[in-house]
Amino acid sequence: MIQTVFDILSIRKDFPILNRKVNGYPLVYLDNAATSQTPKKVIDTIVDYYSNYNANIHRGVHSLSQEATDVYEQARQKIQRHFNAARPQEIIFTSGTTHGINLVANGFTSLLEKGDEIIVSALEHHSNIVPWQMLCERTGAVLKVIPMNLEGQLVMGEYHKLLSQRTKLVFCNHVSNALGTINPIEEIIAAAHKVGAAVLIDGAQAAPHIKADVQKLDVDFYVVSAHKMCGPTGVGMLYGKEEWLNKLPPYQGGGEMIAEVTFEKTTYAELPHKFEAGTPNICGGIAFGAALDYMNAIGFDAIAQYEQELLEYATQELLAIDGLKIYGDTKEKTAVISFNIEGLHPYDIGSILDKLGVAVRTGHHCAQPIMDFYKIPGTVRASFSFYNTKEEVDILVSSVRRAKTMLL
Ligand code: PLP
């Protein structure tokens, strides 16, 4: 029984897109792990910015520029408060999670030596694998992998064995995008720190569901994308401890990130501007702040409770379908269900679901090593948000049954 911890009908009214039809059917949007939908408050913030105070920031003497600068910097403070960073200068605006990871990976080029080791988890998105492989190519560092088990959990005993004085960096996602597993990041961070290694946590899939406290976690870097948490695309944040951000060199050169430029020598701006070369996504940053306001007004505890109830119900109903197998069988997971039906290709199931108005993801979910582990080409992934309903779960389940009948 799903207990409504908030007024779901009123929440759904906040999202104009949920009213549309797809292929003649009411949209059932279950691809939230790829991108979440945008509430009217965030859309209004974007319209307000372009209608009333669109201007370049940080360098204008005129009123519009100052207004835009103030609101943009207020958004940074909202993000700081949300993730409980100690200072606003520890929040770097990025274009998203991928940008944040590449910024850190690039910065470590000058800090690593041949033979140093960096540890990645088997549950990563390609964004949290490839930049580190490129770092290894540049530096001669060696990449080690924390293995996973059939339940979709990390084998923590193996992680502890991999750690040594040679370990310089550990990176892991807070939540797996392909399976929804919530990783034991507290243990990962504490153990890495014991050997003096820095830790980057990819919070892309956690941030829409879990309010991370970066000081409590004692994490060195934490990265997210706004578009997965009711914000716009093309903006995200990198949290970095001030001492680490001061150690890393700038990622890109250009305007905004300098203190003084001559042809002989350039000095760099203080944090956070050192990492924010060029005109940023001003409107995106401001709208990211509005998205956090929106989600916090609902409350992350209520969101988590409701989504867990949806997850339990959907899991139970899907498992009642003959031949359906769910990947990632762990209690600690967010509302993501990755599944296959024996004898069917995930793409075919996804295509029929789309014809019935149900949007799911199919494929390897940018996590090919996980698919290789299970020896499958991909899965169908239904990922839920707080604006989804029990009725939508029922539509998913009946549509999957229909797809099975049509395809088998
Ligand atoms: N990391 C994880 C766990 C993700 O799920 C994603 C996107 O799905 C990314 C990183 C990349 O995020 P973005 O494309 O917003 O940079």
Structure at a glance:
Helices cover 39% and strands 17% of the residues. It has 408 residues and is α/β, with parallel strands linked by helices.
Any chance you could write out the topology, listing elements then pairs?
Blueprint: H1 8-13, E1 21-22, E2 25-26, E3 28-29, H2 40-52, H3 63-82, E4 91-94, H4 97-107, E5 117-121, H5 130-139, E6 142-146, H6 156-162, E7 167-173, H7 185-194, E8 198-202, H8 214-217, E9 221-225, E10 236-240, H9 242-247, E11 258-261, E12 266-268, H10 282-298, H11 300-319, E13 324-327, E14 336-341, H12 346-355, E15 358-359, E16 361-363, H13 368-374, E17 379-383, H14 390-407
Parallel strand pairs: 3-15, 5-6, 5-7, 7-8, 8-9
Antiparallel strand pairs: 1-2, 4-10, 9-10, 11-12, 13-14, 14-17, 16-17
The structure holds pyridoxal-5'-phosphate (PLP).
Pyridoxal-5'-phosphate (PLP) is lined by residues 34, 96-98, 125, 127-128, 173, 177, 202, 204-205, 225.
Overview of the structural elements:
By secondary structure, the chain is α/β, with parallel strands linked by helices. The chain folds into 2 domains: 8-30 and 299-407, Aspartate Aminotransferase, domain 1; 43-297, Type I PLP-dependent aspartate aminotransferase-like (Major domain) (Aspartate Aminotransferase, domain 2, 3-Layer(aba) Sandwich). Helix content is 39%, strand content 17%. The protein has 14 helices and 17 strands. The protein has helices at 8-13, 40-52, 63-82, 97-107, 130-139, 156-162, 185-194, 214-217, 242-247, 282-298, 300-319, 346-355, 368-374, 390-407; strands spanning 21-22, 25-26, 28-29, 91-94, 117-121, 142-146, 167-173, 198-202, 221-225, 236-240, 258-261, 266-268, 324-327, 336-341, 358-359, 361-363, 379-383. A 7-stranded mixed sheet has the order 4-10-9-8-7-5-6, with helices on both faces. A hairpin with a 2-residue loop joins β1 (21-22) and β2 (25-26). α11 runs parallel beside α14 (390-407). The chain is globular. The mean pLDDT is 97.
